[in-house]
Design brief:
Helix content is 46%, strand content 15%. The protein has helices at 18-29, 47-54, 75-93, 103-116, 132-141, 153-162, 194-207, 228-241, 256-265, 282-287, 302-309, 322-325, 340-352, 354-371, 374-396; strands spanning 5-11, 35-41, 59-61, 97-101, 120-125, 147-150, 170-172, 215-219, 246-250, 272-276, 290-293, 314-317, 332-335. The strands form 2 sheets. The protein has a 7-stranded parallel beta sheet, with helices on both faces. A 6-stranded parallel beta sheet has the order 10-9-8-11-12-13, with helices on both faces.
Length: 401
């Protein structure tokens, strides 16, 4: 197969988020000699719309569905409109490979692909999904596609056991990080080269953070899965013992108002900074001393991987994906999910042992850029598309011109 492969990436929306950022990185690095990518979302324009246009990648807003705003009664109609709208797009553009991201897009893609005669329809699962109805619908529509990409071994095992999906059609491709985005490690606790110290002070000035106080960082969607009340509770313990410590939370989401109220109720104003969404999270990584994650469910958190690449030690819960990212005691500290006291003790330990923290940060960076390299990740996606398309044409006949 020497002709360029026409591939469409479908995601629920183009809003800001870890999966959305990962998809952008894949499209940005995909070989244009082998692939002609297009991107689509179920809803309307969002943050990444302009980012894709700058890459000269065709962008499609199906404008058929905004899943977070649909009542149960309207679900069947919205689903039908989305499926037939996507099927028309696939047929019109002669798409050969559909790669979907996130639950709603996975479901719509699997239903639309066969209608359009698309040879390969590949889903992607980015988390261990606790909602039973998601698992049920995933299992029901799975046979209509070509398989799923799982971002970690833990996600693959969960899909096989919980949804009873065949292991042979679950392909593990861990998330990746671009070394060029994090060329200078942060300087934990004011230790490092003059260049990294200057970069650190500049980043803190941009974010309005104190120039010398220890800073813990969180980056991610402000949603229930991140268990951010646990993080605030853990930090309140830290703040009571370390009066200069600061927690910077970057991101946006449905829990933002609740978090602001909690910060006020816990009298943590000034100690907890809600800095909002950052187009470049590397600014916060450069400013921080440690990355903290309190999640109760994950697949392979992109933000944690980015923080590792920036040279930060991690204090995180032992949820799926984090276990595969981390080497406890070497790249950071791991605690049981929901253990607020443990999370606080890990944060305090980082402050008390700055030399050990700096060493963990260096080892975290080496692990991230070695084992979880972005180019390696993209090449694995490319190889999988080629393999599945070859198998599809072996069964269905030659490619369309």
């Amino acid at each position: 197969m020497t002709a360029v492969i026409r591939v469409l990436f479908l995601i629920t929306d183009f809003d800001r988020g870890g999966a959305e950022r990962l998809l952008y990185q894949i499209v940005r690095r995909l070989s244009r000699e082998r692939f002609a990518p297009q991107v689509a979302c179920l809803g309307g324009p969002g943050y990444y719309t302009e980012q894709y246009r700058r890459l000269n990648v065709p962008v499609h807003h199906l404008g058929l569905w905004a899943p977070r705003g649909i009542a149960a009664a309207g679900f069947p109609l919205a689903l039908a409109r989305s499926v037939f709208g996507l099927a028309r797009l696939l047929g019109r553009e002669h798409i050969e490979v559909v790669q979907t991201f996130l639950f709603h897009a996975n479901m719509v893609g699997r239903l639309a692909g066969p209608l359009a005669g698309t040879p390969v329809v590949l889903g992607a699962v980015h988390t261990v999904e606790p909602r039973h109805w998601h698992t049920l619908l995933d299992g029901l529509t799975f046979p209509l596609g070509s398989g799923e990409v799982c971002v970690s071994e833990a996600v693959r095992e969960f899909q096989a056991q919980r949804a009873k999906l065949p292991l042979r059609s679950l392909f593990v491709i861990p998330n990746g990080v671009d070394a060029a985005d994090f060329s200078l490690p942060a300087a934990p606790f004011e230790r490092g080269t003059q260049e990294s110290l200057t970069r650190r002070r500049h980043a803190r000035a941009i974010l309005g953070l104190p120039p010398a106080d220890p800073v813990f960082a969180f980056v991610g969607r402000l949603c229930e899965a991140k268990a951010l009340p646990d993080l605030l509770s853990a930090f309140s313990i830290v703040a009571a013992r370390q009066e200069r410590a600061v927690l910077a939370i970057a991101g946006d989401g449905p829990l933002a108002p609740q978090l602001r109220a909690m910060v006020h109720r816990m009298a943590l104003e000034g100690r907890v900074r809600l800095v909002g969404w950052l187009d470049d999270p590397g600014v916060l990584y450069s400013a921080a001393d440690c990355f903290v994650l309190s999640s109760k469910t994950e697949g392979m958190p992109v933000a944690a991987l980015e923080a590792m690449a920036a040279g930060l030690p991690l204090v995180t819960t032992d949820v799926a994906g984090c276990i595969e990212l981390m080497v406890p005691g070497e790249t950071g500290l791991l605690f049981r999910q929901g253990d607020v006291g443990g999370l606080a003790s890990g944060m305090l330990s980082v402050l008390k042992e700055p030399d050990q923290a700096a060493q963990m940060g260096r080892q975290a960076r080496e692990r991230a850029l070695g084992r979880f390299n972005l180019d390696r990740m993209v090449r694995r996606y490319e190889a999988l598309y080629g393999k599945l398309l070859s198998a599809a044409y072996t069964l269905k006949g030659p490619r369309r011109s």
